[in-house]
Specification:
Helices cover 55% and strands 6% of the residues. It is mainly alpha-helical.
């Protein structure tokens, strides 16, 4: 029951955090709106056309994540954007329960439970919860289940849990391939080879065929962010402080013993595309990008502890007995710097000063209307209206909804009227609501 308890505690804590974000109308990005549109389309048995990305934009041309079709039935029963936050928290809870089970089996009840809690509230997962829903939530659960099976020498289960990862995001095909190679060596069975072939094949098919076919620009949208020629011309550009912080946190989270396990190789595909990218947002430990690394790092740490028990070096065997404590202590030390610590001062970190104005602005917009919006209230409109992001070229909407304080607008866009004239000079907009920085304008 202890693994289940760890999973339930993490789900509860993360859902409280998500609820505080929600009631304070916090919107870190447009991503929750995007995935809510996808879930809404799947619930209606339609293709994932996401107008936030652009009129007629098929989200399967952005990233390859057909496994997200599983959101459709859930959204059909609970048709709210907040549902996706709960789904992500539940998937992280499943991952926590799985790895805690493996840790208890290998380390004992007390140490294993504490190690499982260190994983459940690790920096990568907390960053993902704060960034709200992303497709990698499914990857975290699948990786945790697969790696737990690996640690317990259940080779077929390891393979079966890993296989669906290729349908979560295209780059995870390379992660599956790396896991397959480690599985082949450890199990000394052909299962791992087949898993590696499966991963490479789907990565190639998704990135070279499916994504270019469905993307409006006819190419894999994220391939251009990696410039091999530029990297070769200036290798020093690879050395960035943010990358060092990410690596250091990974090592500390894995009790340093993570490098002893061949499972550490499974970290490399994700680290490679992030660190080779010219987008600084991928380099550091924030947002959701490190969530998939957490089950790998903690799984590798457990494997490393088991391996050093047979080491010929006494000092290494001794450190192996303490390595889990390093992960546990690191989680405690980092706790005050991570998102969940904000719950210790809810009024300061989750202000509801503008909540009444936001709620009133939302009430002005009727169900089924077409809306052009910044990120301010997008996530709260998307479950019941047809939302477009105002950074794209869009048709004239029924309503224009903006947040002058936190919507991410250019400084020169000082009102809904100004935004309307800039985006749709041939249309006429009338402001029908304005309070606390929120404005709603209706087209006439």
């Amino acid at each position: 029951m202890l693994p289940v308890g760890v999973g339930l505690v993490s789900i509860a804590a993360y859902t409280v955090f998500s609820a505080m974000q929600w009631r304070s109308f916090s919107a870190p990005s447009w991503d929750l709106g995007i995935f809510t549109q996808l879930a809404r389309q799947y619930a209606a048995f339609d293709a994932p056309i996401v107008t936030i990305k652009g009129a007629g934009f098929n989200l399967l041309g952005d990233h390859f994540h057909p496994l997200l079709v599983l959101l459709g039935p859930v959204f059909a029963v609970f048709p709210h954007a907040f549902t996706l936050l709960v789904v992500q928290n539940a998937l992280f809870g499943v991952a926590a329960a799985a790895l805690t089970f493996g840790a208890i089996t290998l380390l004992g009840r007390r140490t294993g439970t504490l190690f499982g809690l260190a994983f459940a509230f690790s920096w990568g997962l907390q960053g993902a919860v704060e960034a709200q829903f992303h497709e990698i939530a499914f990857a975290v659960a699948l990786l945790a289940l697969s790696l737990t099976a690996f640690l317990l020498r259940k080779w077929m289960a390891c393979l079966l849990w890993a296989m669906p990862l290729v349908f979560v995001k295209e780059d995870l095909g390379l992660t599956v391939a790396a896991l397959g190679l480690v599985l082949a060596v450890r199990s000394r069975r052909p299962l791992g080879v087949w898993l590696a072939v499966w991963g490479i094949s789907w990565f190639a098919l998704a990135s070279l065929v499916i994504l270019p076919l469905l993307n409006p620009n006819g190419a894999w949208a994220y391939s251009s962010s990696i410039d091999p020629a530029g990297i070769l011309a200036d290798p020093a550009a690879l050395l960035q402080p943010q990358k060092g912080v990410t690596l250091a946190l990974l090592l500390v989270a894995g009790g340093l013993i993570v490098v002893r396990s061949p499972l550490a190789l499974v970290l490399l595909p994700t680290l490679a595309w992030r660190f080779l990218s010219d987008n600084p947002g991928y380099w550091g430990p924030t947002w959701q990008y490190s969530a998939v690394l957490m089950p790998i790092a903690f799984g590798a740490a457990l494997d490393g502890i088991v391996l050093v028990r047979r080491s010929g070096w006494r000092w290494l065997r001794g450190y192996g007995r303490q390595a889990a404590s390093v992960s546990i202590v690191a989680a405690l030390v980092l706790a005050t710097t991570l998102p969940l610590f904000k719950l210790t001062d809810v009024p300061a970190n989750f202000s509801t000063d503008r909540a009444a104005a936001a709620t009133a602005a939302l009430r002005v917009v009727p169900d089924g209307a077409s809306v052009e919006s910044d990120i301010g209230l997008m996530n709260f409109l998307v479950e019941r209206t047809d939302v477009y992001w105002l950074g794209n070229a869009n048709p004239v909407p029924d309503y224009l909804v903006i947040d002058l304080q936190a919507g991410g607008l250019p400084a020169e866009w000082t009102s809904a009227q100004v935004v309307g004239r800039a985006l749709h000079p041939d249309a006429t907009f009338t402001t029908i609501y304005a309070a606390d920085g929120y404005e709603v304008a209706q087209s006439r």
